[in-house]
Structure formats: structure tokens, C-alpha cells
Amino acid sequence: MSLYSSGVSDVGVESSTPALAWGPVIGGAVAAAAATIILLLLGSGVGLTMVSPWSGDSASFTTVGVTAAIWFVVVQWLASALGGYLTGRLRAKWANVHTDEVFFRDTAHGFLSWALATVVVVGMAGSAFTSLTGAGAQAVSTTAATATVAGTAAAANGDAAAPDAATDYFTDMLLRPQDLASRAQADNASATAEISRILMQGAVNDGVPEADRAYISSIVASRAGIPPEEARARVDQVLTQIEDAKNAALKAADQARKSAATAAMLGALSLLVGAFIASAAAALGGRQRDDEEAALIVTR
């Protein structure tokens, strides 16, 4: 026995019953959000058993990250299926409605339930993130205020203002002495500070010029009491290590960028799949609800 008319009925007559039933949508969304929270807490508990402060007892960072990503996807899909199915089962029967229209309404209700649950879960996660960010910003503000007070106190005690860091390097170039050996032996603090500024300038400009390399080598030879060739080899070795560390940091940053991009795209794909699952589950739940009611009518 067919539940719905196969054609369009009541042409020109508008039904007083709305096509959108918010009750089942909200109920399914609440169930999906609650299931998401429960499953995420369960996953967090299991994930904490995979890490350990003891060497050799903890899983690798890659293993933990991949496992967490897979679990997030599974949680999203399971919660979407639960919310969509409940939405379809809880809605009332639409009488005198074409079967195709019933299917469309069920899938639309499942999609709306998924969307509402997603917004709720993301909103809760965003609130937690905002709280953490606010605490961090407050700590930074406190630190900045403390530094400002300290700087003001130092100025009040008569300390001279420090030169602009952007011009220190060029000032050093203008004031480089001819008698480098005697100065390097007499003023170790100034020599150390000047070398630091040269290295910082080289890091900014992607390399230390040859003149600066020779100058650093002269200071190292005077301070360490070694031949100029050995001092130059030491300087080149240190600069190579600095360059390697810089390249490693850039590689790590690029890898983090690629990982973030991949996670964002996979997250978007997972959400789209979750929306489809919720819509299909709602259609399944609605069909089962109508079939059971039809079977009950036949038995009567």
C-alpha cells in the first residue's frame, strides 16, 4: 500500500503544516553534539595513554597526530549519523506528500541537524580557544607592563638611552678600530656585543659579508690567541652551523604550513562527508518511521 500519492495533489492549495520541523532538527543536533563531546573525551583519554614522559614508553608524535586525526573524522561521522537518524525518526508524518518530496525534506532536515550540531560544537571549541587566547594575551600584557615600568625606572636612574638596534651594525662599521688586537684584548664585552650584532645582521640579510667574516676572524684570533687561518676556519664553521639551524627552522615552518593546509582540506572534506551521512541517515530514519507506521496500520 502506497503511503503517498504518486503525483501532485491539491494543486493551488497551500498546506497549513510547515515543511520544516525544528523540533526533530534541534533534537538530532543536540544528540549529535553530545555524542561528539563524549567521543572526544573518550578519544582524549585513550590518547593520553599513548604518551608518556619516560623515554621509550611514548608513541611518536606522528603516530599520535595521525591517530587523533582519524579519531576526529570517525567522531564527526558517527555523531552525524546519530543526529541525522534521530531527526528522521522523530519527525511527524507528512500526509498527502509525494514520495520524492518526503525524501527531500528528510535529507534537508538531516542536513540542518548536522549544520546546527557543527555550529554548536565549533562554538564551544571556539569559546575554549578564546579563553586560552585571552589568558595568553593577559600574560603578555602583564609582561609588557612590567617591562615598561622597568624601562621607566632605568631611565629615571640616569641610564643613557640605548642606540637604535637597526643602526648599531652600521655604527660599528664606522667605528671599527685599526688596532684591533689591543681593543679585543681590552674590551671583551664590546667585542662580544659587536660580533652578536654582525651575526644578527647576517641572519636578517641571509649571509655574513666577506668583510665581516674577516673582521670576526681577526677578533677571534686576538681573543683566542690562535693563528688567523685557524680563526677563520672556526668562524666559517660557526657560520655554517648558524645557516644549518636557520634552514632547519625554515624547513620545520614549511612542513608545519603544509601540514596545516592538509589538515584544513581534510577537515573540510570530512565535514562534507558528515553532512552527506547526516542527510542519508535522516532519510533512512524517516523511511523506517513511515514503514513501521504503515505496517502498524495494515496489522490493524
UniProtKB/TrEMBL annotation:
The chain crosses the membrane at residues 20-48, 60-79, 111-132, 260-284. It comes from the Bacteria. Keywords: Membrane, Transmembrane, Transmembrane helix. This is Transmembrane protein.
